[in-house]
Amino acid sequence: MAAAPSLSALAALGSARSAGAASVFSTFAYIPRGRITLPPALVPGKSSIMRFLALCVLAVLLAAFVAQASASQRAHHTHPHHHRSSKSKTTTRPAPHSSAHRPSHSQRSSTHTTAIPSHSRLPPTSSIARSSAHQSSATSHVPPSSSVHPSSSSTTTTTHTPSTTHTPSTTHTPSTSTTYTPSTSTTHTPSTTHTSSTIHTTSIRTTTTTSTTAASPSPSVTPNNGPQCGNGVCEAGELCSTCPGDCGACNGRFVFAHYMVAYTDIAQNTQGYMAEIDMAKSYGIDAFALNVGAQWYQTYQSLVDQFFDAADAKGFKLFLCFDMTASGSNGQPIPYTAATIPQILRRYANRQSQLYLHGRQVVNTFGGQNFNWNTVKSDHPIYLMPAFFLAPNALSQTGLDAYVSWNCWPVGSKPYSWSSNDDPQFQSAMSQLGSTHEYVAGISPWFATYQAREQTVHGNHGFLWINRWSDIITHNANHAYIITWNDFSESSYVTTFPQSHEAIQYDQTQYPHQPILSLGRYYIQAFKNNGKFPKIARDEVYYWYRLHPKNAIPAQTPYPKPSEANTMDDNIYVVTMLTAPATLTIRTGARTVNVQVGQGLQTTEIPFSLGYQIITVSRNNNVVLTSQGDFPITSSPALYNFNYYINYAN
Description:
Elements: H1 7-25, H2 48-77, E1 160-161, E2 175-176, E3 200-205, H3 247-251, E4 255-260, H4 270-282, E5 287-292, H5 296-314, E6 317-323, H6 340-348, E7 356-357, E8 360-366, H7 373-379, E9 382-387, E10 402-405, H8 423-433, E11 438-443, E12 448-451, E13 454-457, H9 464-474, E14 479-482, H10 501-505, H11 514-528, E15 540-545, E16 571-578, E17 582-588, E18 591-597, E19 600-607, E20 613-619, E21 622-628, E22 645-649
Parallel strand pairs: 4-5, 4-14, 5-6, 6-8, 8-9, 10-11, 11-14
Antiparallel strand pairs: 1-2, 3-19, 7-8, 12-13, 15-16, 15-22, 16-19, 17-18, 17-20, 20-21
């Protein structure tokens, strides 16, 4: 709207108009008592010619007065301070996980929330059902909001490590840590670069990836009456390129994570679970498999109720995983029977966050291959997706609908491969049972435990996380199942909760794993988008190593050394994700190794040395990335711990 003229301006305009009128009429009219009286020469009775001429003169003067008044009005309205300015309207779209962790792992406070539904709601059978009608034909993929680390300048030289405290947020931003100076750095001169015989470099994915995405656009909430991007439901008009948050739903591929309900990560309440859900969503995880043990009525029911409340509010999916290997309290049998399992399932069947596949409520197990699941199915319709410990040719007799394989680690001294872990046989067994029977491939970064009940290492892990994801994508598994979200007792967790009771109990506070999940997001996006990898839009480097060699002598040995520990390599493992070729410099202890790495994702491993580990990426004589591990490698640890420390920089 134009600004209104001030009172003083209006008064001045009125004065100007009055002066103009007086100059026009003063020579031939005067105005006594409000009447206009013509001069004597113009009164009736004079000659008609004189009257005609007088009227003409009067008409001309009146026209001049009108023109002058119009010009004055135009001058007022075209004053530069009265121009109409157009308002620019900016609409801010809420990100699905506002900063509120990633938790907090939960990083994660989602600005797109769903009201908790009534328990009388019918089962949302179409909420996460496989759909082929909306598969994307796009050649590019936009990462989800949770998809990439916060963007940073390509000249970043600070060291980044995951923060030790977590609050809900949409992404996990590693905090800058204090640089540790290796004690050997002042007395040792870096040796020359290792020869190719001691360096193993393998290109996993290069510039053939096709996405044109920027670093991490946030999925948006579409206008009312349209599809909602990021709500886990494939709706008409959604494509992977425009709505990565629902890409898995549109392509019928989901990523699950095994969650130990008994463990305390942030807090065992609705708010704590909401924070972790935000974190999981930001990395592309679609649902948690809630592992519940023997004490259902004493412990788990209340916790699971709160978990479903949190998932309902966050638009996340859950399903129960009955741990059929758990022992009951005080030697009592576990409460999971053909009669009690349907009762427990009905408690959550109408919850918005309950996962359904092919129109049936999903049920997962750990073990339970000798249980009569057909009896459960006759009482309550379920989609049985168990982890049975059976040979592939024995699965058809169990009544299952899908199979989750936990055979995702190397076996003994054999290196990992898709075929050596029996994946082809399990996958074939499912396809032979029919189109609704699906193969769910387990994936885990590593497995190591050292405690009274078990001392185990599952082979040489190395780049298992990358190799396994690559195979899952290449061989078209129906779904992926991360083992695990938070099992600190077995080192398989992909989260970072250093204040967790279990992290402290199992001596895992020095071993953050969340960066492995950040790296996994690159593969999760490709898995959900039919193998189309996102574009690497900025430089990143990840690295991991153990904090002691396999032949270290600990100060205490309360339990035997894990037998398979001798199959492990004493290496530092580095993953570069680069926008252009660069030089990777690995300083391990007092030794320095330079490796030329190309554009894209590549892996490099070299034998590690005692001391601190420092990673640097340089390009054109400029340092692009640098990071130093928080903890050195030592030959005299307090206890055996074959877990891995992981860090990254971007």
